[in-house]
Amino acid sequence: MVEGNDQPDDQIDEEIENIMFKAAIIAMIAGVIVAAYLIWLNSQESYSALYIYPESYSNYINKSELPKDVLFTYGIKSYETSDKIYHISIFLGNKLVKYKEVKIKRGETFEENESVTVYPNTTFPVKVKIVAEVNGVTYEVHFWLKEMPH
After folding, report:
1. H or E stretch at 16
2. Mind listing the pLDDT tens digit for each residue in 3-62?
3. Integer Cα distance of 118 and 37 in angstroms
4. Are strands 60-61 and 84-92 parallel, antiparallel or unpaired?
5. Strand spans (E) along the chain
6. Rounded to whole angstroms, what are the CA distances from 112 to 14, 29, 40, 72, 135?
7. 26 by DSSP, 3-state: which?
8. Measured between alpha carbons, how far is 52 from 68 in angstroms, rounded to an integer?
């Protein structure tokens, strides 16, 4: 027995064990809650869909009409977990011809009519490529331009 204390040492030890047991239970419950949240957060699928409407362009171009603007419509559907800034690059062959940044809200779709100018010195076939980058992930779609057969 401790002097000045009416409780025996065994009773104090029992109280300390009881407090430690309750603290361990609380810590385990908190750990399970945090782990469940992190697993849920990780399982949230985050992606985007980049597309070109196939009926919005022609794959053939008459070389005698160059320079000529080629028109097409593309879109991005955001399935990201929050609003994001998309970095959009448009290429004719390996040449970057347009660049823009667009903020798309979660669940929304961005669509745009676009054009690229094809010049007489272009070598056919040539790829028109749209690249969208968001969160370090790159999405790409393209179509080919070919010289119209004679």
Report:
1. helix 9-43
2. 555 557 778 888 888 899 899 999 999 999 998 888 776 667 789 999 999 999 999 999
3. 52
4. unpaired
5. 47-52, 60-61, 68-79, 84-92, 95-104, 109-118, 126-134, 137-147
6. 72, 50, 34, 8, 21
7. helix
8. 20
